[in-house]
Amino acid sequence: MDGRISTFGRLPASLARVADTQEQTRGTGMRNFVTAPLVGLVRNPRSHRNKGHDAVLAGRADVLLAEPRTRAELEQSLAHFVSAGIGMLAISGGDGTVRDVLTRGAPLFADKWPVISVLPQGKTNALALDLGIGSRPALDDAIAAAKRGQFVARRPIVVSDRDGAARDRWGFIFGAGVFNAAIDAGQVAHRFGAFQSFAIGVTAMFGMGQALFGFGRTPWRRLYRMAFTDVATGKSLPHSDPDRPDIRYVAGFTTLRRFPLGMKLLAGVEDEQPIGYFMVDAPRRRALALVPAAAMGRHGPSLARLGMHRGSGEAFDVVLDDGFILDGERFPSGVFRMAAGPELRFVVP
Predict the structure, then answer these.
(1) pLDDT tens digits, residue range 226-275?
(2) Helix/strand/coil (H, E, C) string of the chain?
């Protein structure tokens, strides 16, 4: 991955010994989760709700705990989980922690992913909201739910460099354009103690005010060069200005369908295709004044004529001059393919 990832705690020295012991005792083949659960837990001690709290896991033979600080340690931890034959991968943190674990775990788990449990402890937990995880379940709640077969399938977005310069990045919300300014504003909101839906609301109101009434070089009214082509059809995504089809204000893509604050960003979009998108071509004040109504479900050809577009697809070729945001982290510009990844099973306590 490019850029800085979430910072994790130190990997316990006992992890390799525990994994080796489990490998010696389990025999061949994947561990049966219902009869012999073995959980690999990646816990981010710097996530918002994990700070200052230790994991209460002392003496548990059914849990392999990892708190890695670096990408290399995270990958080492996941490799131990694979060799131990875990039945469930638990992730304690926010959306960024989930992104990092899936990105680093993809080459290791390949097509044999265990079931995944998200324990939402971060500043933002959009995936947990989409899965219907309303409270903060304990690890034992997730284990009990997995034994009962309470799973929901989701497909992540996989972003691949067309030249292969960086590894594939896995996430659930891809944003370009004014998303960059929104992320910066969101970090300010977090510093002032606003988290989750409240932080999104604060950021949205601030951004709308800047976009509607801002003048000069405010980043909230800037246009960006970005081009999107549907791989299946070979056609560019719709644009209200045929003379500038590669210039837009904001574009968001996601495989999620439930959003904070009751928003219905993908209202009217068919669910047959896994990746839905919402785009605004330019910060025209008339169009921006209708964004709140569009975000709450209004849709139709009149909005498309104003430069607001919704749709869906399986894969898109992408050219960006100003980088992109994936689950809250900024990545550099380039030429990419964005495609729906494999179906993963998530535990819903």
Answers:
(1) 999 999 999 999 999 989 999 999 999 999 998 877 888 899 898 889 99
(2) CCCCCCCCCCCCCCHHHHHHHHHHHHCCCCCCCCCCCCEEEEECCCCCCCCCCCCCCCCCCCEEEECCCCHHHHHHHHHHHHHHCCCEEEEEECHHHHHHHHHHHHHHHCCCCCEEEEEECCCCCHHHHHHCCCCCCCHHHHHHHHHCCCEEEECCEEEEECCCCCCCEEECEEEEECHHHHHHHHHHHHHCCCCHHHHHHHHHHHHHHHHHHCCCCCHHHCCEEEEEEECCCCCECCCCCCCCCCEECEEEEECCCCCHHHCCCCCCCCCCCCEEEEEECCCCHHHHHCHHHHHCCCCCHHHHHCCEEEEEECEEEEEECCCEEECCEEECCEEEEEEECCCEEEECC
d(CA 221, CA 224): 10
Domains in the chain with CATH codes: 15-154 (3.40.50.10330), 173-326 (2.60.200)
Per residue in 90-111, pLDDT (tens digit) is 999 889 999 999 999 999 999 9
At residue 121, what are phi and psi to the nearest 5 degrees?
A: -130, 10
Contact 11, 68 (CB under 8 A): yes
This model's pTM is above 0.85: no
